[in-house]
């Protein structure tokens, strides 16, 4: 990999981690949305796995109450697995136009959801949970993005903030492990990209730490809206690029 690309990847890690530390935004989605502008998604997705897995695991440990949440949402997590397999299969057998379009659409929807601050109120039912899990897995396998539609679904349930954090990060962690295994079977994991991914832990840690400091000094609500708007615009840009 060329030095310029390596520099861009590490800078992207830092920026996405800074956004997560400042505004609590999805690290993988922000990271992949930027990387898709200069890397094939089949190269970008493996790079994000290790930093994302580490960040999610640390958040899970901090949130606590893992087993209770896992027992409550096990069907949601299990339903994502066939979607993940299908998404990875499509990713490995096609060009990146479709994945880029799906990722751009996902980013736009995520940004729009955050800006709208929707207050859906849903009940946890097995059919709905299976649909949400399957679709989340499909989008995850195809693009590497882990937040849609599971994030708005969990936010619509009557659960506490800590339960939401644990539930979403448990999903992220399981998905990251499955993605790592699936990408390995597809031959997309190499010593070079895993080394760069591991090195990326350093700018990710620095970005989250610095973002936390900025968050305590700036009005988070205003900054979050700005970032969400930028993510939506970046998503629209990726969709437009797919059709041009």
Structural write-up:
The protein is mainly alpha-helical. The protein has one domain. The chain has helices spanning 3-23, 27-35, 41-63, 66-92, 97-116, 126-143, 150-155, 161-185, 191-199, 201-215, 220-243. Helix 1 (3-23) packs antiparallel against helix 2 and helix 2 (27-35) crosses helix 5 (97-116). The longest helix has 27 residues, at 66-92. The two termini are 27 Å apart.
Throw out a few tags for this protein.
244 residues, mainly alpha
Summarize the structure.
The chain is an all-alpha fold.
- Rg (C-alpha, Å): 17 Å
Number of helices: 11
Shape: globular
Q: Which class best fits the helix and strand makeup? A: mainly alpha
Q: How far apart lie the N and C ends?
A: 27 Å
**Approximate helicity band:** over 70%
Number of strands: 0
Q: How many domain units?
A: 1
Order of helices and strands: HHHHHHHHHHH
Biggest sheet, in brief? none
């Amino acid at each position: 990999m060329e030095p310029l690309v390596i520099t861009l990847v590490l800078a992207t890690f830092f920026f996405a981690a800074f956004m997560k530390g400042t505004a609590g935004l999805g690290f993988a989605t922000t990271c992949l949305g930027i990387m898709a502008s200069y890397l094939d998604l089949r190269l970008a997705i493996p790079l994000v796995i290790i930093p994302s897995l580490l960040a999610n695991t640390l958040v899970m440990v901090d949130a606590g109450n893992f087993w209770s949440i896992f027992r409550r949402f096990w069907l949601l997590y299990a339903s994502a697995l066939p979607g993940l397999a299908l998404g990875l299969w499509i990713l490995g057998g096609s060009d990146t136009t479709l994945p880029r379009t799906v990722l751009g659409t996902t980013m736009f929807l995520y940004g729009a959801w955050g800006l709208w601050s929707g207050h859906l109120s849903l009940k946890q039912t097995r059919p709905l949970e299976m649909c949400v899990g399957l679709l989340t897995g499909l989008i995850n396998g195809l693009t590497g993005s882990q937040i849609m539609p599971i994030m708005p679904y969990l936010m619509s349930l009557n659960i506490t903030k800590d339960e939401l954090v644990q539930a979403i990060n448990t999903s992220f962690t399981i998905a990251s492990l499955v993605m790592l295994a699936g990408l390995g079977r597809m031959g997309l994991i190499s010593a070079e990209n895993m080394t760069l991914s591991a090195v990326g832990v350093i700018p990710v840690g620095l970005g989250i730490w610095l973002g936390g400091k900025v968050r305590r000094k700036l009005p988070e609500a205003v900054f979050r809206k700005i970032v969400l708007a930028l993510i939506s615009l970046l998503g629209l840009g990726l969709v437009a690029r797919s059709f041009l």
